[in-house]
Write a structure and sequence with these properties.
heterodimer; A: alpha/beta; ten-stranded mixed beta sheet; about 30% strand; disordered N terminus; B: alpha/beta; 36 helices; 39 strands; globular; binds adenosine-5'-diphosphate; binds magnesium ion
């Protein structure tokens, strides 16, 4: 009887385009650092880019994903084959929090999909995905067997690659982006205050912006908190704050030393801290725990997370390539959540102090909203 | 798995859903079977009540105890009394089981015998079934629901409508399949609908009609720790107003943004937590077309058709998990059977598109309305998988088995497209394609159909590609275009039809194979992809597969071992249903037991055969020559079994054989000899076996001459069709001429045959298994109805009770003769008609027949297992047991769904009309027959019987029965002719005027007033125009009154109720105690 084919596909190979849509003429290809080539057709901006190639299994929310700063510098592949179905929302009004996006611009460096599908007939759409990518100067590759790509990344781990476009001469180096200080790139330049909704006293939360998704701010403001968004290396200790939130963000936590240094000082005190995604890893590092790179990360909207010591399992939205070594936490720290699929760490908490963090995204967008309770709990602590 | 179970039950009663009917079909065999497996795994003793003998769940090796009994409160109470289970599962047997459970609770039965309801609490079920309570509950938690009023009288209905404003939507409570629901545009309409609904349901809902909204469904799972997930969401391509069961449905949703998707998901979960469902349920939403406004339409707190679909679409075994959760386990404890490393607490990520299209059979019915709406009429469905929407859509169209080659290249004709688009029928999708082809713009189509533009754009994409193909001939067809066409799901056959050619495309498969060869030479090939619930994020262990052109490599590598491929039965439709799924599954199991690697191909989401744990590799894909050849080329099978899946695989035998595929069992040529009536009849002549006179039809003139010689009535039938499609009896020259037009439409590629129709003959069937022409085992059953009622609609008695031994001996002799001549190896079925002492053969199928599960279970001798062993060439010896030793009787009765087919005339004929069947066991024919009838909804008469007994002959024939009825003390009503006849013979009856005569006392108002609970209406002849007889039969159906139109069946029924006075006298015995 047939086995699921052994995952290590023997050696570098070239896979030709799976489809030839009449409206696509320009060839393009994805080249992995191991020499594997996925040929397809080009859409979006006409340029070549390099970056770490990652996949997400989310079936909806490409505008949110593409603008998620955590994808900064990455070539993003969607396992769902039809992308673009409902177009893209109107351009965000500068200054205010972007609606339908997680930041003002596309953060991923390129997009790899099976089929570019549909224009902008959805009621909430202002333009097609392709129009948007051209505006944003981001190239796309379609007509690729994205499942074949996913299976390679799954078995060999995510790896550096490059999108090459027919007629584009100069090609960036295929380099490991791990050393690049991506957080510095995506963090804001100076502090900015966002008012919470509703009357009464508003707790003041300092959001350490390592590449924060807009919906983190929205989620806090909707719950009546004022949010001061500060740069990743901001001096936190002497900020007036009822609590701190360490945001999500791109890249290897160990590169974001500036933020870790700030956190170390915070942990001396007793003011509540909540970390999200990269924030979880940074808090862990500050606490003296370790982080490591997952083979191919968790990127999707269906990751089950068990709250340790309970029978509660949350379905969460995730996007991370690194994880906290949950089995080697320093004294005083415990695992808060673990991934029900692979048992990797999904959050940590301090036994005595209000220091907590989660690896998943309570702010969702894209993805399920089940974990929003994390914000509620955080605000209870503040009040 | 740790047993987080709350006080784990030791004995559990499971209720099935009875016969397949419109709205409640095969999906409940799937869910019931999975539930039983889930319980067995934990060594829990299971008791099943389900009269549907053709199901897997009622097979040996599943439930510990099986009762072939009606699923109603009376019988189930007696089973409970006998078995004393400590718990009961209500959510795996559809609406039937649910309503039965509610009744048992109301009557205090569950309390009396201390039977715990597992899973979703009864209170929750009641809330979700009672539309008024439900609406109230929703308002409590501030969720939007359509403005509505629940009412229980016609007056209140009208008042409610005034408040809400016409048009209003009418929906019945405690029902499914949209029973009785629909749009009422004015008071008259509303009054009519209300009267009809209230005659069957306690309550109806009058609510605002949400025109043009999108319809979305979520399948929700919750455990007792309040973990709650949505396994899948589905979007209806058709706008709200067309029942989800009647809609083209796509999973996952295609046009929902992250905001819309997760808004509805969040609401579903909030709602289900509030209601406290434990296990599985589905939430139906209306979503505005141009905003995120939503309304909750309903919650079904049980496994449903949609959950079966979701289960197959995602690979998430919903019913299995639901059963585990009902036992108290938490979701993350239940392992994900596909990855084996992950748990069941996750939401599947799909990396493909799934499309479901319902299968209708409306053409089989006279006078039925073809319009689609909020009431279900479809009898089955197909599910197609692809990496593009277009690919899945075209696959699905072909799978329907209605002669469609895709959304295009079909022979459907549309005289008024705008009409077709505005008022959908089963041809809606083809009309859309045709409209776009003729240049209607998408906006116009949207305005007429209310379908979301994205879907229309996909169809337009197909249409555009088709026109580009048409610019080329095969050699000139550019590879990129060819590849793109395949990615959009064009079949080789479709391409062949589209290509520029001087001569019209020839019949048969020639040109398709030509295209296929050319395509392969260009290296354009499909690949095999896996369904793994996690979009390849984790390695999958099961081989749940589909094929697509939108891929560059196979997910699996073939091993050296050459498998046996079993072809399944395809979509359920009238004439081919769950019985063939039973055959296919049993064939696979028998092959497995013999250590063979097994592959199964099927595309019906309501089946057990498409559970990926049934075989080693499941291809959820087309049963077309093209796709089966693709799979054979990949799998290099040792053998392909075409004789256990009904007529679809059977028809592939010849072309597959010609293409060099190793068909196992009877040789391809012999199959053709049996199927092709011309060849078969000459074989019978050679064997000196008697058969009704026949003639192959060339021209109408010949036909008329033949009819003149043999005298009317004559029967017209095309070869190679199951379920008597387009078969008809002609009594006159006009009818003959009329029918021929219809018949020759059906299957052009095969000749039409006309034969003498033998009236007043007994019909007998032989199911058998042979090896190299030697009969190994056989079963002879007799029909209660005389020949002329399709074997699929006939009441079958086995072992036969009223056939002379002499007849049996001769039938066996004939069977041996045919088996020998055709060198039959494997299953076969021969139909005989006997009159006076003449025995004639009417047809022979070299495949498993509809009655295989029936006879196999009555004898507890698995005919499929014998067939498989025979086909594998094993040394097979005949069973010791023979039918003569049976001291019990099995009676198989048809289930009709006329009540759901507005306007259809519930008459029986050579065209099959039943949607399902049941079979019950008894110590004698009478008790078995009554149990079977009750199982399909008959009630024993108490109030009054209406007699219209047809021609003078049948009046005479029925006289003794009429007398018996009279002696039973039942008030008799009769229409003038019958009334007078009865009077002449000293039987008093109340005269009722026929519907067409507006005089009273009238049949209609007596029926509406519920004074009559049995109608025996034997027509004089199959009259076509609107007759009083028709109106009477239709009224009976619409008001749920038991109806007989066949005199033999009626006679047996009268005999039965005279010998068995009340239900209470019917014995309750499990299968095991009979056999
Ligand atoms: N208020 C409404 N306006 C328009 N269509 C409706 C409305 N309510 C229900 N429908 C349609 O009627 C169908 C059947 O209603 P539903 O309550 O789901 O019955 P069932 O319980 O038999 O499935 C739905 O699938 C939907 O298409
Ligand atoms: N020559 C005949 N005389 C009387 N009844 C017939 C004759 N041939 C067929 N029938 C009736 O028509 C029904 C359908 O015919 P059959 O050949 O079995 O069609 P199908 O191929 O759909 O099973 C039979 O079950 C029988 O009742
Ligand atoms: Mg319902
Ligand atoms: Mg419904």
């Amino acid at each position: 009887m047939a086995e699921a084919s052994s995952d290590d596909q023997n050696g570098p190979i070239t896979l030709s385009p799976v489809d030839h849509p009449p409206d696509r003429s320009r060839r393009a290809r994805l080249v992995l650092d191991d020499g594997t080539v996925f040929e397809g057709y080009h859409f979006g901006a006409t340029k070549a880019v390099a970056g770490e190639v990652v996949f997400t299994t989310g079936m909806v929310g490409y505008p949110e994903s593409l603008t998620d700063p955590s994808y900064r510098g990455q070539i993003l592949s969607f396992t769902y084959p039809l992308i673009g179905n409902y177009g893209v929302p109107p351009r965000p009004t500068p200054g205010s929090l972007p609606e339908g996006f997680e930041s003002e611009h596309v953060q991923a460096s390129a997009l790899v999909i099976a089929t570019l599908s549909g224009g902008s007939t959805h009621w909430s759409a202002a333009r097609s995905l392709e129009e948007w990518l051209i505006e944003e100067g981001v190239p796309g590759l379609c007509c690729v067997d994205t499942r074949a790509l996913t299976r390679r990344l799954r078995s060999h781990g995510t790896r550096p690659g490059r999108i090459e476009v027919e007629g584009v001469e100069e090609l960036p180096e295929i380099a490991d982006a791990a050393t690049r200080d991506l957080v510095a790139e995506v963090s804001c330049d100076e502090p900015r205050l966002y008012e919470g909704v509703g009357a009464g006293t508003h707790p003041r939360i300092v959001l350490v912006d390592c590449g924060a998704k807009a919906n983190i701010i929205r989620s806090l403001c909707q719950r009546g908190a004022d949010v001061l968004r500060v740069p990743h290396d901001h001096d936190l200790e002497r900020e007036r704050a009822d609590g701190f939130l360490i945001s999500n963000g791109p890249g290897d936590p160990k590169v974001a030393e500036a933020t870790v240094a700030q956190l170390k000082r915070l942990l001396v005190g007793a003011r509540p801290v909540l970390g999200i995604c990269l924030g979880n890893q940074l808090l862990a590092l500050a606490a003296g725990a370790d982080t490591y790179k997952l083979d191919y990360g968790h990127r999707g909207q269906n990751q089950p997370c068990l709250e340790v010591g309970t029978d509660r399992c949350l379905i969460t939205s995730q996007n991370h390539g690194y994880a906290v070594a949950g089995d080697r936490l320093p004294p005083g720290w415990r695992e808060w959540f673990v991934n029900a699929n692979d048992r990797s760490n999904e959050g940590i908490r301090h036994e005595d102090f209000p220091f907590r963090s989660v690896q998943f995204h309570p702010e969702a967008t894209p993805g399920p909203r089940d974990a929003a309770v994390i914000f509620d709990r955080f605000l209870e602590v503040l009040r | 798995m740790s047993t987080g179970a709350v006080e784990r039950p030791s004995k559990v009663l499971i209720l099935g859903s009875g016969a397949l009917k419109i709205g409640e079909a095969g999906e409940f065999d799937y869910s019931g079977s999975q539930a039983i497996k889930a319980l067995r795994e934990e060594k829990i003793y299971t008791v099943l009540v389900n009269p549907n003998i053709a199901t897997i769940q009622t097979s040996e090796g599943l439930a510990d105890e099986v009762y072939f009994l009606p699923v109603n409160a009376e019988f189930v109470e007696r089973v409970i009394e006998r078995e004393r289970p400590d718990a009961i599962l209500l959510s795996f047997g559809g609406q039937t089981a649910l309503n039965c459970g509610l009744l048992l609770a109301d009557r205090g039965v569950l309390e009396k015998y201390q039977v715990r309801v597992l899973g979703t609490p009864l209170e929750t079920i009641r809330i979700t079934e009672d539309r008024e309570l439900f609406a109230g509950e929703l308002r409590k938690i501030g969720m939007s629901t359509p403005r509505s009023r629940a009412v229980s009288t016609e007056e209140d209905a009208l008042r409610a409508a005034e408040e809400i404003g016409y048009p209003v939507m009418v929906r019945a409570a405690f029902a499914l399949g949209g029973m009785g629901s629909g749009i009422a545009t004015d008071p008259e309409e509303l009054e009519g609908m209300a009267r009809k609904v209230l005659s069957q349901a306690p309550q109806l809902l009058v609510e605002e009609y949400l025109e043009g909204w999108r319809e979305i469904e979520y399948e929700v799972v919750r455990d007792r720790h309040d973990n709650c997930i949505t396994v899948c969401n589905m979007e209806n391509v058709d706008a709200l107003g067309i029942h989800t069961g009647e809609s083209i449905v796509v999973a996952p949703s295609q046009t929902l943004t992250d905001h819309e998707y997760h808004l509805l998901r969040e609401i579903s979960i909030k709602l289900i937590r509030h209601l406290g469902v434990i296990g599985e349920c589905n939430v139906q939403f209306a979503l505005h077309a141009t905003s995120d406004e939503y309304r909750i339409i309903e919650v079904n707190a049980r496994l449903s058709r949609s959950s079966a679909l979701a289960s197959k679409a995602t690979g998430y075994p919903l019913a299995f998990v639901a059963a585990k959760l009902a036992l108290g386990h938490s979701m993350h404890e239940v392992p994900n059977s596909i990855t084996r490393v992950t748990g069941s607490c996750f939401e599947p990520a799909l990396d493909y598109v799934v499309i479901k299209i319902p299968r209708w059979d409306l053409k089989k019915f006279k006078r039925v309305s073809l319009a689609l709406g909020s009431e279900m009429k479809s009898v089955g469905e197909v599910m197609a998988i692809g990496r593009r929407f277009e690919e899945a859509l075209q696959k699905a169209c072909r799978m329907l088995g209605i002669g469609a080659h895709g959304v295009l290249c079909n022979s459907f004709e549309f005289d008024n497209l705008e009409e077709e688009l505005a008022h959908p029928t089963e041809r809606r999708i083809f009309a859309i394609a045709e409209a776009l082809r003729r240049g209607m713009d998408i906006e116009r189509v949207r305005a007429l159909t209310r379908i979301t533009p994205w879907f229309l754009e996909r169809v337009a994409e197909i249409v555009g590609t088709a026109s580009r193909i048409a610019e080329h001939d095969l050699e000139g067809l550019p590879d990129p275009l060819f590849r793109h066409a395949k990615c959009l799901g064009f079949s080789d056959n479709q391409v062949a039809r589209l290509l520029k050619r001087d001569a019209p495309i020839p019949r048969g498969y020639g040109s398709m194979l030509e295209v296929r060869e050319h395509r392969k030479s260009r290296g354009i090939m499909p690949v095999i992809k896996q369904i793994d619930t996690l979009a390849a994020e984790y390695p999958a262990h099961t081989n749940y597969l589909y094929m697509t052109y939108h891929g560059s490599e196979d997910d699996i590598t073939m091993s050296e071992v050459r498998p046996q491929i079993v072809l399944g039965g395809g979509a359920y439709r009238i004439g081919s249903s769950v019985e063939f799924d039973w055959c296919a599954v049993n064939a696979v199991e028998s092959l497995k037991r013999r250590g063979h690697s097994t592959v199964l191909i099927n595309y019906n989401p309501e089946t057990v055969s498409t559970d990926y744990d049934t075989c080693d590799r499941l291809y959820f894909d087309e049963l077309s020559l093209e796709r089966v050849l693709d799979i054979c080329e990949k799998e290099n099978p040792a053998g392909v079994m075409i004789s256990v899946g009904g007529q679809i695989p059977n028809q592939l035998a010849v072309p597959l054989g010609r293409a060099g595929v190793p068909i196992i069992g009877t040789s391809v040529d012999c199959i053709d000899r049996a199927e092709n009536r011309e060849r078969f009849s000459s074989l019978l002549d050679e064997l000196k076996i008697d058969q009704p006179e026949w003639r192959e039809l060339t021209s109408l003139a010949d036909a008329l001459r033949f009819a003149e010689q043999t005298e009317y009535p004559v029967l017209i039938r095309p070869s190679y069709v199951l379920s008597g499609a387009a078969m008809s009896v002609a009594h006159s020259d006009e009818e003959l001429a009329e029918y021929l037009a219809a018949a020759t439409e059906v299957s052009k590629d095969f000749p039409v045959v006309i034969s003498k129709f033998i009236a007043g003959a007994k019909e007998i069937e032989l199911d058998g298994v042979a090896q190299n022409g030697r009969v190994i085992c056989y079963a002879i059953s007799e029909h209660v109805e005389q020949a002329g009622v399709h074997s699929g609609d006939a009441t079958m008695v086995f072992p036969s009770q009223r056939i002379y031994l002499e007849t049996v001996r001769r039938i066996k002799k004939i069977a041996r003769g045919i088996a020998g001549a055709l060198k039959i190896t494997g299953p076969f079925n021969i139909q005989f008609i006997a009159r006076d002492n003449r025995i004639q053969v009417i047809e022979c199928n070299l495949r498993a027949s509809r009655s295989f599960p029936f006879v196999s279970k009555i004898l507890k001798e698995n005919f499929i297992d014998y067939s498989v062993r025979a086909m594998l060439g094993e040394e097979v010896s005949s069973p010791e047991k023979s039918a003569f030793e049976c001291d019990y009787v099995g009676v198989k009765a048809p289930q009709f769904s006329f009540s759901r087919l507005k306007g259809a005339d519930p008459l029986l004929g050579v065209e099959m009309a039943s949607t399902g069947e049941v079979a019950c066991l008894g110590d004698d024919v009478h008790s078995a027959y009554l149990k079977a009838l009750i199982s399909v909804g008959y009630k024993l008469p108490e109030r009054g019987v209406l007699l219209t007994t047809g021609t003078i002959e049948s009046k005479v024939a029925f006289l003794p029965s009429a007398r018996k009825l009279h002696q039973l003390g039942l008030p008799l009503y009769a229409t003038p002719g019958t009334h007078q006849f009865l009077a002449e013979h000293g039987i008093e009856s109340t005269l009722l005027h026929p519907p067409l005569e507006k005089l009273s006392p009238n049949v209609i108002d007596h029926l509406e007033a519920g004074k009559i609970d049995l109608v025996i209406n034997v027509p004089r002849s199959e009259r076509r125009h609107l007759s009083s007889g028709y109106l009477t039969r239709r009224k009976a159906v619409d008001f749920g009154v038991s109806l007989f139109t066949n005199i033999q069946a009626a006679e047996l029924f009268v005999e039965a109720i005279s010998s068995v006075r009340s239900e209470a006298d019917l014995t309750i015995k499990p299968w095991r105690e009979y056999v």
